[in-house]
Amino acid sequence: MKWGIIGTGNMGKILTEAWIDSGMIEPEQLYVTNRTLSKAKLLQKNYPGITVCEGADAVAKEADMLFICVKPLDIYPLLNKIQPYLTEQQCLVSITSPYSVEDLEHEVPCQVVRWIPSITNRAQSGVTLLTFGERVSPLMKAYVEQCCKTYSKPVQIKENVTRVSSDIVSCGPAFFSYLLQRFVDAACEETKISEHEATTMVTEMLIGFGKLLEEGHYSLPTLQEKVCVKGGVTGEGIEVLEAEIGKMFHHVFQRTHRKYNQDKWELEEQKLD
Q1: Which of 136, 40, 149 is nearest to 93 (CA)?
Q2: Which residues form the Pyrroline-5-carboxylate reductase dimerisation domain (predicted)?
Q3: What are the start-end ranges of the H helices in the chain?
Q4: What's the pLDDT at 157?
Q5: What three-state secondary structure class fits 95?
């Protein structure tokens, strides 16, 4: 099975690293290209067996599994360009949320899958979000799910929860990285702890926190109950969080969905032009 990636930006690079480092595919199975070809060649430098193609059409000719890892507004022109090289036997994969699987099926003859990765996949962990088009064969579906299991936990989702699922899985690491950095900054500003000390402690705390959940020792609510002793210091901190966080996360989801709807509108306008 030959795999192809059109667009070796952040997510295209993370997918390549996750696939090859986990042993899901061999470098010789992968064909890549990028608008700035030097980025694709840099990836090839790390994994010499990869084939760098001069353009998207060359990747489309070779790949059985063809990943479209470009910006939403670049997808429609790209599909028009590679359309002559696509076949019913291929599986076309999109990693972006605004372009629905149904929309893609109207544009191409291929089997279609949406496959939303997470930066956590780089550590052979986290979730891969999957949505399958109606033309995907049972054999292809099983193959995709098995491939994802090599380095992540595949979770099949419906179209109507695509954005929020992506917010949690794909955007979540950035959101919580930001919050943790603010946590470190506040500790340094309010006390005499150094940034290095605080960062080390927060990092190790987070790793241990993840292991507690992964190994099933606690759920999120029970973990809070265990640490938050009534009348204790943790309880004082929780009261501040309850008072000051308010509707913050509601506003985060409102903003991401607003952007999602804007992107979908722009894609529709692009088709009409």
Answers
A1: 136
A2: 162-261
A3: 10-21, 37-46, 56-62, 72-82, 101-107, 138-149, 162-166, 172-190, 195-214, 220-227, 233-245, 248-272
A4: 97
A5: coil
The number of residues making up the chain comes to 273
Domain 165-252 has CATH 1.10.3730: yes
Strand-by-strand arrangement of the 91-94 sheet: 51-52, 30-33, 3-6, 65-68, 91-94, 111-116, 127-132, 153-156
Task: Provide the pLDDT for residue 268.
Answer: 85
| CA gap 205, 199 in Å, rounded | 10
Residue 191, pLDDT score: 98
Query: Which residue intervals of the chain bear CATH 3.40.50.720?
Result: 3-157
The tokens for 244 are 């000051």
Note if the pTM is more than 0.90.
yes
Give the pLDDT of residue 228.
83
Residue 229 amino acid letter: V
Give CA–CA dist 206/212, Å, rounded: 10
How far is it, in rounded angstroms, from Cα 180 to Cα 173?
10
- In which region does residue 126 sit, left (phi positive, over 0), alpha (psi from -120 to 50) or beta (all else)? left
Provide the pLDDT confidence category of residue 271 given band limits of 50, 70 and 90. confident
The tokens of 193 are what?
A: 């702890």
231 pLDDT tier (thresholds 50, 70, 90): confident
Confidence of residue 267 (pLDDT cuts 50, 70, 90): confident
Closest CA to 9 of 164, 119, 132: 119
Residue type, 164: V
Instruction: Look at residue 118 in the predicted model and tell me its pLDDT.
Output: 96
The DSSP code for 53 is P
Q: Which fold has domain 3-157?
A: Rossmann fold (3.40.50)
Taking the CB of residue 239, how many other CB atoms lie within 10 A of it?
A: 11
